[in-house]
Write a structure and sequence with these properties.
Layout: E1 31-37, H1 46-59, E2 63-70, H2 80-92, E3 96-100, H3 111-122, E4 125-129
Length: 131
């Protein structure tokens, strides 16, 4: 189905990174979000893909806040899920979006414009994982 180099039995919850302040509270990992085109994966595999995004986030030192699911590319210049994703990245201060290679392609707006949009409106960079 897809390949990844994340251990299958790794806990999805991040571990504390040490004191965040003088009171000894554990530091929380930075937040990131995921993006998944559900027209590119089988309905039965959506949860598995979401789990892979969560595991990759943890391995990279992040906490996955949510995965924005896009049912299929819309004819509109910008899909609702991508607009909501950019808004949420800006609101939460998350600077990373994880997705799978090809999930930002074949849409009304080309991939480069979508990456620029997420960078400028969401203040987020995108990592595209191999499928």
């Amino acid at each position: 189905m897809f390949s990844h180099n994340v251990s299958q039995n790794r806990d999805l919850m991040p571990t504390a990174r040490g004191p965040a302040c003088d009171c000894g509270c554990p530091a929380l990992p930075p937040l990131c979000y995921g993006y998944l085109r559900t027209d590119l994966v089988s309905e039965d595999a959506v949860a598995t893909y979401d789990e892979v995004l969560a595991r990759v986030a943890v391995v990279c030192g992040y906490q996955l806040g949510a995965v924005f699911h896009e049912p299929s590319p819309q004819a509109a210049p910008l899909s609702q899920a991508l607009a909501e994703l950019a808004t949420e990245c800006r609101r939460s201060g998350a600077h990373l979006v994880l997705t799978f290679r090809g999930h930002l392609s074949d849409m009304a707006v080309n991939r480069g414009c979508l990456l620029d949009y997420l960078r400028s409106r969401g203040d987020a960079e995108v990592i595209e994982l191999p499928v």
